[in-house]
């Protein structure tokens, strides 16, 4: 009696929603809840995305404006080539940046305010810190091939405070004096940095009926001479801190309660989904323990780890993860809209990842139908072989990455770092930028014929190996799994039956009964997704003890 009861519960546990509906008339509540969750989570993501887009746009446009304001002669797209080549250009660029900072209220189209004490730790409470780093002592004589350098680095800073009232620049030679060139010659100068902060308010958020945020931009202008090559690259980088404005007041500001109510609905929906999925996982865990104990008592056999994992539904774990991420992201979103938090990037990652998992989780319900489960079925069969294949390919790929970086890095812009090498090689596998990659090495043929010859062998061998062999074998593995799935299928019905025996529902008793014989031959018990997806190829059978006849 105990064995029969456990067999029935095992059978029912591994049924699909279709079979559970046939057996007991149970409605697929989790499926309906997931559909509702997809709708509310997607709408929430769109609303937050529109708001986050304004934040990112405001930050990027201010950075571009700062470069035009503080960098002498700057033009769009010149970030990598913008540099000074003479002493006059260097000092003019430094004086120009400081003067523009002091004249900012008169010249800027934006509304910016100075931050007293925002000039880095070396400013000692001043608004702007202009610092130069140089070697303590040094003498270089290229004519005699001699040099004498003291590698100790000295940092000198000039502190600047803006006037109480905006002014017009008094004289062309600049408002701030640097040490003259003969005191700190370029041969000892490592870099010059200008650090300051500016405040502004993002009024764009009024478009989305939100209270504007207050921004503090930390700006760093760097004149980098560490290469001592005669070229001093000039760059401007910004970091932004978003905080709640003090005493915000917006005339005729619309009611934002609907947005808050919608976020609460999302939290309640995801909480209910979390409870249902967690309950199913808990039931599976308890049934697993009961099954393991029964087999040990009756058969004296220990259940392997892989057989235990049959009771763990990975789709429920995915949905639970998405619910946790959605609830966390929604709480953070409420804090952002209430101006208590400003972590837009973290919130967007949480909401974006959760939405991805929610949409992927719906595939589980499509796999119960024969016409829609081919993707998951093929991935299940092909994944082990593909993972082993990728491990072997990764060894060769990393070898090409390291080789290309060390040999071609000094000569090719796409090989300057390991990450860039990996991106370049991956694009070559997909057939992108082949001619551009080859053409970039043609310019080096006159400088180093040996490196050019090596680059040709390197690129041709990589493209031939990975496109014609590795990529073809990779596709063949997936195609083979797909063909095996097609062969193994034998025209199942639209909503496939689950388990080894036929399920009937007794209307007068309201219970599930198992049909089929219970004779001496053992029948292989197969779980929910094995039979549903037609995956008899390459799959191990589920535990047989409870399904076998007595």
Q: Rg to the nearest angstrom?
A: 34 Å
Helix content: 40-55%
Any idea what the shape is?
extended
Number of strands: 9
Q: Topology as H/E string?
A: HHHEHHEEEEEEHHHHHHHHHEEH
Average pLDDT metric: 80
Gap between N and C termini, in Å? 11 Å
The domain tally reads 3
Number of helices: 15
Low-confidence stretches: 171-183, 493-550
Instruction: Give the biggest sheet.
Output: 7 strands, antiparallel
Portion in strands: 5-15%
Q: Which class best fits the helix and strand makeup?
A: alpha+beta
Would you kindly provide a written description of the structure presented here, covering whatever features stand out?
This protein has 550 residues and is of the alpha+beta class. The protein has three domains: 165 residues, no CATH class; 154 residues, no CATH class; 113 residues, Helix Hairpins (Orthogonal Bundle), CATH 1.10.287. The chain contains 15 helices and nine strands. Strands 1, 2, 3, 4, 5, 6 and 7 form a seven-stranded antiparallel β-sheet that branches. Helix 1 runs antiparallel to helix 6. The chain is extended, with a radius of gyration of 34 Å.
């Amino acid at each position: 009696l105990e064995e029969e009861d456990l067999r029935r519960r095992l059978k029912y546990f591994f049924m699909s929603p279709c079979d559970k509906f046939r057996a007991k008339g149970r409605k697929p509540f989790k499926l309906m809840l997931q559909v509702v969750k997809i709708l509310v989570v997607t709408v929430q993501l769109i609303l937050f995305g529109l708001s986050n887009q304004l934040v990112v746009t405001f930050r990027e446009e201010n950075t571009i404006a700062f470069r035009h304001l503080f960098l002498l002669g700057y033009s769009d797209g010149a970030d990598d080539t913008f540099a000074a080549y003479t002493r006059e250009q260097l000092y003019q660029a430094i004086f120009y940046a400081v003067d523009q900072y002091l004249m900012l209220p008169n010249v800027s189209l934006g509304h910016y305010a100075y931050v007293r004490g925002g000039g880095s730790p070396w400013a000692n409470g001043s608004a702007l810190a202009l610092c130069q780093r140089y070697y303590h002592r040094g003498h270089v004589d290229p004519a005699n091939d001699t040099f004498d350098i003291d590698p100790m680095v000295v940092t000198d800073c000039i502190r600047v405070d803006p006037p109480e009232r905006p002014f017009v620049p008094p004289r062309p030679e600049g408002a701030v004096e640097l040490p003259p060139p003969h005191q700190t010659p370029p041969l000892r100068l490592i870099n010059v940095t200008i650090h300051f902060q500016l405040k502004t308010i993002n009024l764009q958020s009024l478009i989305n009926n939100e209270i504007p945020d207050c921004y503090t931009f930390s700006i760093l202008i760097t004149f980098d001479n560490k290469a001592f090559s005669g070229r001093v690259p000039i760059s401007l980088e910004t970091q932004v801190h978003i905080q709640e404005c003090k005493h915000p007041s917006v005339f005729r500001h619309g009611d934002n309660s609907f947005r808050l109510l919608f976020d609460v609905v999302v939290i309640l929906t995801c909480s209910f989904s979390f409870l249902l999925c967690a309950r199913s996982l808990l039931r599976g865990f308890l049934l697993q323990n009961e099954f393991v104990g029964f087999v040990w008592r009756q058969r004296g056999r220990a259940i392997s780890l892989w057989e235990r994992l049959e009771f763990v539904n990975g789709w429920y774990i995915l949905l639970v993860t998405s619910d946790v991420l959605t609830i966390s992201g929604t709480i953070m979103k409420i804090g952002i809209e209430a101006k208590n938090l400003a972590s837009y990037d973290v919130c967007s990652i949480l909401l974006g990842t959760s939405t991805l998992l929610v949409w992927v989780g719906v595939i589980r319900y499509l796999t119960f139908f024969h016409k829609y489960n081919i993707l998951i079925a093929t991935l299940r069969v092909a994944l082990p072989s593909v993972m082993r294949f990728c491990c072997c390919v990764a060894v060769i790929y990393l070898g090409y990455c390291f080789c290309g970086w060390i040999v071609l890095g000094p000569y090719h812009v796409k090989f300057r770092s390991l990450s860039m090498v990996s991106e370049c090689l991956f694009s070559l596998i997909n057939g992108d930028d082949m001619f551009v990659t080859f053409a970039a090495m043609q310019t080096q043929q006159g400088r180093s014929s040996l490196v050019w010859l090596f680059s040709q062998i390197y690129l041709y061998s990589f493209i031939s190996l990975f496109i014609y062999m590795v990529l073809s074998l990779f596709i063949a593995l997936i195609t083979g799994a797909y063909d095996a799935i097609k062969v193994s299928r034998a025209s199942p019905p639209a909503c496939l039956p689950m388990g080894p025996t036929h399920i009937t529902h007794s209307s007068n008793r309201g219970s599930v009964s198992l049909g089929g014989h219970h004779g001496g031959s053992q029948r292989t018990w197969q779980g929910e997704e094995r039979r549903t997806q037609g995956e008899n190829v390459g799959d191990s059978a589920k535990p047989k003890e409870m399904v076998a006849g007595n």
